[in-house]
Amino acid sequence: MNGQSERTAAVMGRRRIQRSPRRSVHPIRPVGSCRTEPAVCGHAPACPSATALDRSAAHVVAAHPEQGWSLLCNGVVWFDDGGALLPDGRAVPPPPPQPMSKTRR
After folding, report:
1. Are 9 and 15 in contact (CB under 8 A)?
2. Has residue 70 got a pLDDT over 90?
3. CB of 38 within 8 A of CB of 49?
4. I need a labelling partner for 9 at 20 to 30 A (CA). Which of 22, 34, 45, 100 fits?
């Protein structure tokens, strides 16, 4: 703080409060800088890893059906259409739609 603003603050009866810089509670990390696997799963049996083919079998940690996604225990964000975001930032596309079978009656 310069001398002029100190005098002005003293004359006006105000004190300047030294504040610490704000820190985010949840810092934003660039894609690829996060862990590839979250903390060890405490479920028995353990949930499949994010890179396993059966990754969707992990327990749901946070569900948001109104938005169409759920966070799984292994760090995967699972979408209602079957697509997913892996913890390392890679996207897994949803499976292709299955053709309807023709049934004869």
Report:
1. yes
2. yes
3. no
4. 22
Query: 3-state class of 100 per DSSP?
Result: coil
Instruction: Say how far apart CA 28 and CA 71 lie, in whole Å.
Output: 17
Tell whether omega for the bond before 97 is within 30 degrees of 0, i.e. cis.
Answer: no
Site of tokens 């739609």: 97
Is the pLDDT at 57 greater than 70, yes or no?
Answer: yes
15 pLDDT tier (thresholds 50, 70, 90)? low
For range 49-53, the mean pLDDT: 91
- Take residue 43 and report the two structure tokens written for it: 């479920």
53: left (phi over 0), alpha (psi -120 to 50) or beta: alpha
CA atoms of 28 and 24, how far apart (whole Å): 8
Nearest CA among 65, 78, 82, 77 for reference residue 34: 77
